[in-house]
Amino acid sequence: MIAPVTGKRKPQLEVFPDRLLNPDTAQKLLNELNKISGITRIVVYGPSLPKDNPEDLLQGKFNVREPTYLDIKGEKVELTVQVGRFWIELEDAGVKEQVREACEKALPFPFTINEGLFIRTQKTITDYVRKGGKVDDISIGMFDPKAKRQNSSCCGAPKSSNNEDI
Amino acid sequence: MAYKAQFYPGKTSVAQNRKKFMDPSYKMEKLRSLSDDDVVIMLGHRAPGSAYKKVHPPLAETGEPDCPIRKIVEPTPGTKEGDRIRYNQYADSMYFAPMVPYLRSWMACTRYRGVDPGTLSGRQIIEARERDIEAITKEVMETEMFDPARASLRGCTVHGHSLRLNENGMMFDMLQRQVLGADGNVQAVKDQVGDPLDRKVNLGKPMSEEELKKRTTIYRVDGVAFRADDEVLPWVQRIHNLRTKCGFFPKV
């Protein structure tokens, strides 16, 4: 039997800025969030990042964008989305105020902070299809479910003897 | 008593703007100048200076049978020459864009002839003969019906209408057809289907937030609320009511 999530899960926040963020502003906010010790996980979410850099387009250069990376809790993550919201999981609700202060410091326009459940807390069928269920607790809900499928465990999977690469 | 078209009910600024855009006797305010070639390259249907492709010979040479309707209806320039049908398609941001998709359709019906407009939730397409569509596009893009930050010509990948704006106030565009430069001018760098242009087209400065709110045709709770207009609401309810009843009881 699956244990109910209620009462077990850590508090989660959603930071919802009024505008879609430039990579610089997103990193500025992440730098502030990285300083807070009570944060366990951060997910950045938004529409896919346009292929080109506006400055390159103005100079007549097309398809030359270099990948951009974000520093999230010390981990280098390639930026593939135009950041529209942050989902933040906290150790306990005590650091909510610090998150608000970080947002006030980094964001030049209004924002809202919502409380709720934004990052999944249990494995789903998607995790079994894509990762063969081999998803540790910290990785649940931390990858893009719409990302192009690679080495899935069931239909469309490349034929291998033991699915080692899943 | 002669009937005078009102075009749209209401006395709020939004209703007034809707009225004037739909009223063909109102001359739209010109905000920027574009050359004919600018419009042609942004539409991307033909190379500038090339001949118009034809789907039939000019009407004057076809020797059509005599018909009273043909005598009444003057063909548009594109029809006279037998041009093929082409389209333009706009996406308008829901953040106080000067136009909304439905209004673009209504405007096309009341202001222009020989057009086939179609509206979807966040975009609007007009089909017409090629030289007519170029003339219509030029008129729309040069006047107050268009703002380079909150409206754009998007033949494909149109989503952006209901997304939040970018930090610099531009509507999100996955293909980035229009880019805000450091000098504050918006430059078109790709045509409506996202193919790179050989040269940039300067679309001028975006309108300020106050200017947009003054010129917008969008009802919003943080601007002019739909319910704030005492005339529009009963009018919409009446149409809804009649359509619903007639739908259930065709005899009514």
Automatic annotation (TrEMBL), chain A:
Region: Disordered, residue numbers = 147-166
Superkingdom is: Archaea
Q: Which UniProt keywords apply?
A: Methanogenesis
Residue ranges under compositional bias (Polar residues)? 150-166
Q: Which residues cross the membrane?
A: none
Q: Which Gene Ontology terms describe the biological processes this protein takes part in? A: methanogenesis
Q: What is this protein called?
A: Methyl-coenzyme M reductase operon protein D
Origin organism is Methanooceanicella nereidis
Encoding gene (name): mcrD
From TrEMBL, chain B:
Q: Which GO terms describe its biological process?
A: methanogenesis
Write out the similarity annotation: Belongs to the methyl-coenzyme M reductase gamma subunit family.
How does this protein assemble?
Hexamer of two alpha, two beta, and two gamma chains.
Report the domain of life of the source organism. Archaea
**Does the keyword Transferase belong to this entry?**
yes
What pathway is this protein said to act in by its record? One-carbon metabolism; methyl-coenzyme M reduction; methane from methyl-coenzyme M: step 1/1
What Pfam families does the entry give? MCR_gamma
Q: What is this protein called?
A: Methyl-coenzyme M reductase subunit gamma
Record GO terms (molecular function)? coenzyme-B sulfoethylthiotransferase activity
EC supergroup of this enzyme? transferase
Task: Provide the alphabetized UniProt keywords.
Answer: Methanogenesis, Transferase
Record carries keyword Transferase: yes
Which reaction(s) does its UniProt entry say it catalyses? coenzyme B + methyl-coenzyme M = methane + coenzyme M-coenzyme B heterodisulfide
Q: Which prosthetic group or cofactor does it need?
A: coenzyme F430
State the EC number(s).
2.8.4.1
